[in-house]
Amino acid sequence: METPEQEIETAEVIEIIDDEELAHPALDSARAVLNPVLKSPLLFCLAFAIIAIYTFLLAMNASGAVDSSSFLKLLLFAIFSFMLGVSCTLYVIKRCIHHAREHLANLDEHLDEASDPRHAGEAHLPAEAAATGLTDFDDLIHQMRRTITHLLQSLAGLGDEVHDFVERYELLTNNLSAAVIIRRPEQDVMFCSPYTEVLTGYSLDEIYQGGTDFLDELVLDEDRARYQRAKQICELGEDIAVRYQIRHRSGITLWIETHLVPVFGEHAEVESILSVSIDVTTSVRYQQRIEEQNRDLNDFTYMVSHDLKAPIFTIKGMAALILEDFGAQLDAEGQESLNHIVSAADRLEKLIKSVIEYSQLSTKDIETKEIDLDIVIANVLADLKQQIKDSDAQITVPEDLPVVIGDELRLYQVFSNLLGNALKYRDRTRVPEISLAVRHQTEEELVVDVIDNGLGIPEEKIDDVFRPYHRAHGNEIEGSGVGLACVKKILDRIGGAVVVDSTEGTGSVFTVKLRRPAAQAEPQEETGTARFDATTPLSSL
Amino acid sequence: MIFLLDDDKAHRSLIRRAVLKAGIEIPFLEAGSISEAKRILFAEQKDKLPALSLAVVDLNLGDGRGTEIVSLLRASDSYKHIRIIVLSTSQMEEDVTESREAGADAYMTKASDLLQFRKEIGEAVSNWLENPRTE
């Protein structure tokens, strides 16, 4: 099998081994193994060939001087030497192949360990070759060269990626406005991002030295129990977020929000805890201010409902008494003046009522239940009877409206406002046509349109129609400016929605979406207070 | 006699005249503040205590809540049997609840329509005058 041609392939292996530019630990060990084996057959071969030729020449030279038997002995010795040299050479080449194979298997292992999985497919030796053993040394050398090249390429790529990753990681942790801390459930802080210095005012050295206890000490006493509870939950393996106050080194108090994430070890035990903390002081303060303003708004509403209504009661009552008792003594001008006072007081009263109504929608809870929309619409139409008659409007309403989720009074307000507006903002040059139509109905929701052929809403005002005190038609038509704002607010509160599509001069379509009983429950805070009509005698309740 | 507590003099006048116009002739005992009400109702000499059948009490007063007087009336041996109407401009449920808890028999809002108010207060006053508390 092994022929002198093997010398060429052996030379090829040597070429790879000798190539100084191909540097890798695996290749270095290959060199250590292959160098002596690959280079020694040449030396052996050469040495034995020289001995053989020398002996033969010596024999030829001495042929005249020695007898034929001595010449024959010398000739036999020369032939024997030559054959011994060839046999030794063949043996050494065999060893060389054996070592090369062993080393390839070794290289394959190196590749498994070192190469990136993404490059694994190309970099591995064909499994078949490894399993069956290599019969063709040429192929073997070729594979080896390719493998080494791929391996080195993969390693170079891997090196770049690791470098990029480290760079990104440093960029993130150094610039993140969050304190990233990794610590063991017991004591020590394993990692602490630079922002922790900003958040606490203490240096990283102090934090590393102080450990977990040092960090826990920063939490204000009033919040410590809550903070510790969150930590315990995380130590049991749950993610959790907690808000608490800490004392910054400067003495100021900061609101911190921390997300605690357990990091699991090999046996699913919580090995360490990763916490990401951010400063939420501004948003907490903002929230507190809003709550304060809501309280102020409630107080204001109460003030409006009592203090402003009291003088109106007086103005209207007294004006009515004067008209009743002294009306006959007043001339037409005097009576007209009194009527102006009464109507101004009426307007003021309505405005105050609408302010109260709107502000109460923001602050009061609405209890929702299943409501038959048919009944709501029937009530609305009954109460709008006079306006419908006065305007000669044609009203179309579907017969079987389904049950929806809401509050009867609030739903009444929604449709009373929408249908009332359709009548109020009618185009007086044509017969008002108003219809309520089901656009879409499923087990979970109902979408209805309230369609009119009225004045429509100017394009530039359409975005403001649901904002309080923004009136699309100014003061030429009476109104408080909160009707549609109330509609939107009510629908927001009961899990519905309203949108409008309108063309000035053609009419408007208000689309109302309501929840139906199959819909998922809207989170609403339950109130324990019973509701009762303000004018009902208490004893009858 | 009706005890009328309201810090607005014009309101007292309107209430008085409304009751009168409703056809109920009854004398009024008036107070404009909680402190004045306490002075009148809880005078030291027992014989000077007014004989009341009904109290009409405003809720928001300059020196406190009308419900304070409602509670005092209910806690007092002399007045615990009289009927009490809380009369306010407020329609807030909290006020209705507060009044009921203090012991009021009814809660009425000051309807700004004079005729409406006259009708309501007339009905309420005659109703409660005819039905004294029995317990």
Describe this structure in words.
Chain A has helices at 6-18, 25-61, 68-114, 117-123, 127-132, 137-175, 195-200, 204-217, 221-235, 281-326, 332-363, 373-383, 385-391, 408-424, 483-493, and strands at 179-183, 189-192, 240-247, 253-264, 270-279, 369-372, 394-396, 403-406, 433-441, 445-452, 497-503, 507-515. By secondary structure, chain A is α+β, with helices and mostly antiparallel strands. Chain A folds into 4 domains: 6-158; 177-279, 2-Layer Sandwich (Beta-Lactamase), CATH 3.30.450.20; 289-363; 369-522, Histidine kinase-like ATPase, C-terminal domain (Heat Shock Protein 90). Chain A has a 5-stranded antiparallel beta sheet, sandwiched between helices. In chain A, a hairpin with a 3-residue loop joins β9 (433-441) and β10 (445-452). In chain A, α1 (6-18) packs across α2 (25-61). The termini of chain A are far apart. Chain B has one domain: Rossmann fold. Helix content of chain B is 43%, strand content 20%. Chain B has helices at residues 9-21, 34-41, 66-75, 93-102, 114-130, and strands spanning 2-5, 28-31, 54-58, 60-61, 64-65, 83-88, 106-109. Chain B has a 5-stranded parallel beta sheet with strand order 2-1-3-6-7, sandwiched between helices. Chain B has a two-stranded antiparallel sheet with strand order 4-5. In chain B, β6 (83-88), α4 and β7 form a beta-alpha-beta unit. In chain B, α1 (9-21) crosses α5. Chain B is globular, with a radius of gyration of 14 Å. The mean pLDDT of chain B is 86. Classes of the chains: A alpha+beta (541), B alpha/beta (135). The A-B interface holds A 302, 305-307, 309-310, 312-314, 316-318, 320-321, 324, 345-346, 349, 356, 529, 531-532, 534-539, 541 and B 8, 10-11, 14, 17, 59-60, 88-93, 96-97, 99-100, 104-110, 112-115, 117, 120, 124.
